[in-house]
Specification:
194 residues; 35% helix; elongated; 9 strands
Length: 194
């Protein structure tokens, strides 16, 4: 946060900076902020808690922000708060959208397509019959991680080897889960053996 005079104060409220893309967003925004003395930013991390993110948004509003950049968790739990904020200042939503009219602009990637492209690349350039495919998932419960995972499965289901492919899913150790789950993949059916 700049201590010099600035023209615009931007609040950035993130659902969980443990998500690599959100951590990267903080780094990129921080670098851009250094390039423009007219802009000051306040960052808040809700650590995966919608309740904390609502408190963070209120705190940012109390600081007099001119713009809110937010990455919600996708549950819709922030919609009412964001509708109230949008009545006062612009709201830029990044990552997961909302079905409500609670933002001014939406910046969003096609996460399922990203996963599908990764799966296609693996099949085309890396996979050989009998290989295991290791899928490293992002933060548990993240809509973005789920869409990317669905995309990679959509791509690999197209493979003639699909019925005999073996997958290993390395889950986030942050949640105390086993690092390696054996997944047996059958056409149209995924079963997990713990």
């Amino acid at each position: 946060m700049h201590t010099d005079s600035y023209q615009y104060l931007i609040g950035v409220s993130l659902t969980n900076v443990m998500e690599p893309w959100l951590n990267n967003l903080v780094q990129v925004l921080s670098e851009r902020q250094k390039e423009d003395a007219a802009v000051n930013m306040i960052f808040r991390d809700a650590a995966g808690s919608p309740e904390k993110q609502i408190q963070d948004i209120q705190s940012l509003m109390d600081n007099g922000i001119d713009l809110l950049i937010i990455s919600p968790d996708g549950s819709g739990s922030l919609d009412k708060t964001l509708e109230q904020v949008r009545e006062k200042i612009p709201v830029v939503m990044a990552g997961v959208g909302s079905e409500k009219d609670c933002y001014t602009s939406l910046i969003q990637a096609d996460d399922e397509k990203i996963g599908r492209l990764a799966g296609e690349y693996i099949l085309e350039h890396l996979y050989e019959e009998g290989d295991r495919i290791v899928v490293i998932e992002g933060v548990k419960g993240s809509p973005i991680s789920e869409k990317r995972h669905r995309g990679i499965l959509d791509a690999t289901i197209q493979s003639p080897d699909f019925g005999s492919m073996a997958y290993d899913a390395a889950l986030a150790l942050l949640y105390g889960e086993e690092a390696d789950h054996n997944l047996t993949i059958e056409p149209q059916l995924i079963t997990e053996n713990k």
